[in-house]
Amino acid sequence: MKQTELFTKTFKENPKDEVSLNARLLIRGGFVDKLSAGIYTFLPLGLRVVNKIENIVREEMNNIEGQEILMPLLHPKEIWEESGRWNVPEMYKIKDENLGLGWTHEEIISSLMKKYILSSKDLPRYVYQINTKFRNEPRAKSGVLRGREFRMKDLYSFHSNEKELDEYYERVKQAYFRVYERCGLKEKTYLTKAAGGEFSESLSHEFQTITSAGEDIIYICKKCGVAFNKEIFKGRCDCGSEDFTEEKAIEVGNIFKLGNKYSKVFGLKNEDGSNVIMGCYGIGITRLVGAIVEMFNDDKGIIWPETVAPFTVHLISLDGGDSEIEAKADEIYGILQNSNIEVLYDNRNDKAAGEKLNDCDLLGIPLRIVVSGKTLKEESVELKKRKEVKTELVKIKELKDFLKNET
RNA sequence: CGGGGCAUAGUGAAACGGCUAUCACGAGUCCUUUGGGAGGAUUUAUUCUGAGUUCGAAUCUCAGUGCCCCGACCA
After folding, report:
1. How far is CA A253 from CA A190, A193, A222, A233, A300, in A?
2. Model ipTM value
3. Distance in angstroms: CA A16, C1' B15
4. Cα angle at A107 between A101 and A108, to 5 degrees?
5. What percent of chain A stands above pLDDT 90?
6. What is the mean pLDDT of residues A16-44?
7. pLDDT one-digit tens code per residue, A203-230
8. Which of A126, A193, A236, A257 has its CA 20 to 30 A from that of A276?
9. Which nucleotide comes closest to A316 if you measure CA to C1'?
10. Using the CA of A355, which nucleotide's C1' is the nearest one?
């Protein structure tokens, strides 16, 4: 993608009033535009990141036999009255209060499955969607970390008995860890025991990523590494230890054993009359974008992990209007494209070198390749990784092979 | 939902109740420029909305709206 054609814009100044680091960097870099508190447009750069993350999540859900569906966002009042959750504060109501905007989908999936699960022959079932959620937040804040409208993956599992749920629940846990690993968050993400909330009688598990931008407090057992959310923390770990570290963390996922709570309401039954057992599993996609930004940045901008970066290579032409250098940069752009490398090509010829380089740091694409008169004298280009300081010259002839080994 | 702060070009800022609301950057046009935000010329506003005080309001008062932060809440 040529940067002259890319629909976005970077900003030199931090947005006024915006304290949250992810909001500052995402807005300044032109990844997102804020329409209102907690309501964002994802511009091409930001959407590429969202899509990268969604695809990682999709692959991992498919790996545990999840099947993707897409549920509606307009929800009739009646279906929510079944479970008694029509009047919760989260619900945005529209159309004279006969429709609500979906803030979660237990009711919808349960009433759907009522038609498709007629006996234990139809079990187990694992279905998920990646979709928008609306939530009437009393206080949207912290950039994309807590929005009133956001992207979320929600997986629902249906089983004939508890044992089967328990087994699948463990598989989902592992799949979630693979998602966080692939997003670069593994070291800082802890499986955390938390309250079940209104969804579940038993406890739930959260996946909490340690960051000062987080709004939860968790206690991590120094002995066994299990974490506890402050809301249920009793000062003593299951392993017997009472030695903990306290951390601020952001909840990047949450899994629940719903048991028969919704199957009872919506009449999901096995042939012997017992209730179907359910689990549900959520990952906040756009929250993950924010968490990654909070985690990976420096004073110049974002440092995307390669797996979620909007592009792999940022090619920068410092040609000074010199048509020979420009032609050479075009040629290198072609080489990169032919190698199937996702490349953003800064071919702007009306920008000073400093502005291009600063934009490059702000956007945080993992690998920078500079073409200039200086490098062309050596028949080379200059490579620099965003997360490193050192640069190196690579002969243009050898570039293709070099990148094959790098990426 | 309680508490606090803020609201002026696209962005960031300035302006004692009083002169034509100022500056920087950005953006448009023309020229010169290109290794860390370069220079010149020129263009770029309903001071959030509504009411009030006053000879006179960006500035003071009241109400509303929006945004940010703390707390409460929170798949």
Report:
1. 10, 12, 22, 19, 29
2. 0.92
3. 20
4. 70
5. 81
6. 93
7. 799 999 999 999 999 999 999 999 999 9
8. A193
9. B35
10. B37
State the residue for tokens 């997986």: A155
Structure token digits, residue A266: 């919506």
**Cα distances (Å, whole numbers) of residue A347 to A28, A372, A379:** 20, 12, 19
Query: Encoding tokens for residue A399?
Result: 């570039």
Q: Which residue's entry shows tokens 């206690």?
A: A219
Q: Which 184-223 positions of A have CB less than 7 A from strand B?
A: 197-199, 215-216
Nearest residue: Cα versus C1' of B68: A17
Distance from CA(A374) to C1'(B66), angstroms, rounded: 51
* In contact, A382 and A393? CB cutoff 8 Å: yes
* pLDDT band for position A307 (cuts 50, 70, 90): very high
Q: Which residues contact A96 (CB under 8 A, 6 or more apart)?
A: none
**A272: which residues sit within 8 A by CB, 6+ positions away?**
none
Task: Provide the percentage of residues in chain A whose pLDDT is more than 70.
Answer: 98
Question: Chain-centre distance of CA A399, in angstroms?
Answer: 32
Q: Angle between the A162-182 and A44-63 helix axes, to the nearest 10 degrees? A: 140
